[in-house]
Amino acid sequence: MRPPFMSILVMLATMVTLDPVSHATVVYHSAGVTVEGGAYALDVDGDTVTDFYFSVDRQSGFPPCNHSVEVKESAAPGNLAVEGGPLNKGDPIGPSYETFTGDTQVLASIDYQCGRPTRMGGDWWGVTDHYLGLSFQINGETHYGWAQLGVDSNAALVLTGYAYETTADMPIKAGLTTDVKFTPGSLGFGIVVRGRTVSRTATLTNLDATPLRITDATLTGLNSRDFASENSNPPCGGTLAVGATCTLTFSFTPTMVGKEKAVYTVTYVGGGTTTKKLGLTGTGQ
User: Fold this and answer.
1) C-alpha angle 38/42/47, rounded to 5°?
2) pLDDT at residue 178 in the model
3) Residue 110: domain span
4) What separation in angstroms does the CA of 74 have from each of 9, 41, 202, 250?
5) CA 32, chain centre distance (Å)
6) Minimal CA–CA distance to 138: which of 98, 174, 172, 165?
7) Which of 16-20, 238-242, 252-256, 265-269 has the highest mean pLDDT?
8) What CA–CA distance (Å, rounded) separates 15 from 47?
9) Fewest CB within 10 A of the end CB: N or C in the chain?
10) Of 173, 206, 232, the domain-final residue
11) What pLDDT, in 10s, does the model give residues 86-131?
12) Same-domain pairing of 37 and 131
C-alpha cells in the first residue's frame, strides 16, 4: 500500500502542473447579420439573456432629403465593451489588456445632404475584418469574447460573427474561432518502477463549427526523454471534423527516482495558427 504522505505528494505534483490554458474553450458563432435600422440584441453565450445591443438610428432633417445616421453599441447592465476603435486579429482581450466601458459608444456617424455624405465620424466606417472586445457576466463570473463587425457604405451595421471564452477570467484573442480540448486536461501516470512502461490515453476534441487542421505535434520538457507519444505527427490524421474526437496514447518509462514532467503541444490552424498543451506527469520509483 502506498504511504499516505506519498499519495498526497503525488496529488500535489499533479495539481501544480495543471496548465489552465488546457481547460480553455472558445465557442464561436457565425452571424451574418445586417442592421439597417433599429436595434439588434446579441446574446453571446446563448442563455436567452441579452448581453449587448447594436443599433442604427436614422434621423430625418430639413429639407426631408437631409438625414443623419448613428451606429451605436451599448452593454446590458454588468457587461462592458472595449472602449475606442476596433481591435486587430490576434489582439488579446481580457484583464490588463484593454480599457472597458459600460457607456454607450457611437461606432460611426454620418450626415447626408440629399444623399451626399457631408460629415463622417467614428472608427468603424468600412471596417469588415476587425473586432470589438467584450466582457460579460455568466452566473456572476466575468467572461471575455469578441464580435466581428463593421459599418458598410450604406451606413448599416454588419455583424459577421462572435465568440467567447467559457472559462471565467480567461483572456481570449480577437478573431480566435477554432479551439480544441484535451480530456483530461493533464495526464498523470502515477508512481512507476524504473524500467517499467505505463501507457495512458487522452482525447482531443474539435469544439468549433468548422473542421480543424492540425499541422504539428511536439513532446518537450526537461524529462521528455522518459515520455513517449505513440501517435502520428500530425495526430488525428491531420484533421478533426466538427465535434469529432480522436484518442491519443502516451507512455512513461522512468529512468530516475522522483517526479518527472513533459508537455505535449499540438499546433493547429483556426482563427490564426495556435497551440494547445497537454501536461504529462509521472514519478519514478
Assistant:
1) 140
2) 65
3) 26-173
4) 50, 10, 42, 49
5) 20
6) 165
7) 252-256
8) 32
9) N
10) 173
11) 999 889 999 888 899 999 999 999 888 877 777 777 889 888 778 9
12) yes
Residue 99 carries which side chain, given as an amino acid letter? T
**How confident is the model over 24-82, as pLDDT tens digits?**
577 778 788 999 999 999 999 989 999 999 999 988 877 777 878 999 999 999 999 99
Give the number of other CB atoms < 10 A from CB of residue 78: 12
Cβ neighbours for 284, distance < 8 A, ≥ 6 positions apart: 191, 192, 193, 194, 226, 254, 255, 256, 257, 258, 260
CA distances in angstroms from 245 to 42, 53, 122, 134, 279, listed in the order given = 30, 36, 44, 30, 19
Same domain, 71 and 152: yes
Whether residue 90 is found in the same domain as residue 41: yes
d(CA 284, CA 88): 47
Backbone torsions φ then ψ of 94, nearest 5 degrees: 160, -175
d(CA 151, CA 81): 17
Domain's final residue, options 145, 173, 201: 173
Looking at the structure, tell me whether residues 162 and 87 fall in a common domain.
Answer: yes
Q: The pTM is what?
A: 0.60
Q: Residue 13 sits in a domain of what CATH number?
A: 2.60.40.10
Cell output for 18? 495543471
Question: Do 148 and 236 lie in a common domain?
Answer: no
Number of domains into which the chain is organized: 2
Q: Residues 97, 161: one domain?
A: yes
User: What's the chain's length in residues?
Assistant: 285
